[in-house]
Write a structure and sequence with these properties.
single chain; mainly alpha; 3 helices; coiled coil; membrane; transmembrane; transmembrane helix
């Protein structure tokens, strides 16, 4: 009679090897997940920045349009009739109504007074070393 052959455990990888492989795979998966999350965050920030920049362009265009509108509303031809209708005492400037002042004559420079001479009595009091 032949002794019965037992099935032998054929997996040559040990528990420590399987644990090491599992840790390496999990680490790589976490690193990959971190890269993906980081790139998504950067892309979201970029989209937000583009939206803000487009709003800034729109606001700048609106400011320019308002400035142009103000300039056209404040032209002399439009302001003068309004001021006259309100009853202000403003009148147009003419060459006859402008006063021209003569320049003042230049004053001669003042001569400085000479420095006072030291008092000889003070020099006698100060001891010499």
């Amino acid at each position: 009679m032949n002794p019965r052959q037992r099935n032998r455990y054929r997996n040559s990888l040990g528990l420590s090897t399987l644990t090491a492989i599992l840790i390496v795979v999990a680490s790589l998966a976490l690193v990959g997940l971190g890269i993906v999350v980081s790139k998504n965050r950067v892309r979201a920030i970029g989209e937000e920045q583009r939206k803000v920049e487009s709003e800034m362009r729109l606001l700048n265009a609106e400011i320019l349009a308002l400035n142009n509108r103000i300039e056209t509303m404040l032209t002399r031809d439009r302001v003068q009739p309004r001021l006259t209708s309100v009853g202000t005492l403003l009148r147009p400037l003419t060459k006859q109504s402008i006063l021209f002042l003569k320049p003042l004559p230049a004053e001669p420079p003042k001569a400085e007074a000479p420095a006072p001479a030291p008092d000889p009595s003070v020099a006698q009091i100060i001891p010499k070393h």
